[in-house]
Write a structure and sequence with these properties.
28% strand; five-stranded antiparallel β-sheet; alpha+beta; single chain; 2 domains; 201 residues; Jelly Rolls; 10 strands; 29% helix
């Protein structure tokens, strides 16, 4: 519960900062108009019976219009045992994640040319930061379900799941490109494309 309180405090501090520095009062007016469009139910566990074993429940400008221009959003992430939030990026936001239940192995990779991997095993109440735009992941290494909440520094952070984007694009990327980029045979590439295209569509 302390993790949730921490994130709520983080979001309200960010909101207060936005209000204090805004010369145009419209963000505050927009928030007050939309305050009744709140999001409830983040205490409810989500179904994680999918190929990756996790479900992300977002609370961003698409769910609460009053977040527009405020520069914050929130997600709840549920993980099945050994489930993961696969490698992905947020092109418009840094992320701060707090574990509410379970044990997660988390990490991010720095940009070229170093591509240095930073990882940590997190337990209940632990916090980890993922810098904006970098590929990162979370993996439930426990035998029980895990839950985390994350604050993001944008009302519309975006998400690019690497495997889905590369192998599941529509239309598909030319297999010659992916075969050479990933040093794989064309049969493997086409198999991955068929799988991820089906999953995405």
């Amino acid at each position: 519960m302390k993790g949730v309180q921490f994130l709520v405090a983080f979001v309200f501090l960010a909101l207060a900062s936005s209000f204090a520095t805004a010369s145009d009062p419209s963000p505050l007016q927009d928030f007050c108009v939309a305050i009744d469009e709140y999001k409830s139910g983040l205490n409810v566990p989500r179904n994680t019976s999918n190929p990756v074993g996790s479900t992300v429940t977002p609370v961003n400008v698409a769910q609460i219009a009053g977040l527009n221009t405020l520069g914050v959003s929130l997600v709840r992430i549920d993980y099945a045992p050994y489930g993961q939030n696969p490698p992905h990026t947020h092109p418009r936001a840094s992320e701060i994640l707090v574990v509410q239940e379970g044990t997660l192995y988390v990490g991010f990779v720095t940009s070229n040319p170093e591509n240095k991997l930073f990882t940590k095993v997190l337990n209940k109440g632990d916090v980890f930061v993922f810098p904006v735009g970098l590929i990162h992941f979370q993996f439930n290494i426990g035998k029980t379900n895990a839950v985390a909440f994350a604050g993001l520094s944008s009302q519309n952070p975006g998400v690019i799941t690497i495997a889905n984007a590369v192998f599941g694009s529509d239309p598909a990327i030319n297999p010659d490109v992916l075969a050479r980029a990933f040093q794989l045979g064309q049969k493997v590439v086409k198999s991955l494309q068929a799988k991820f295209w089906w999953d995405n569509n």
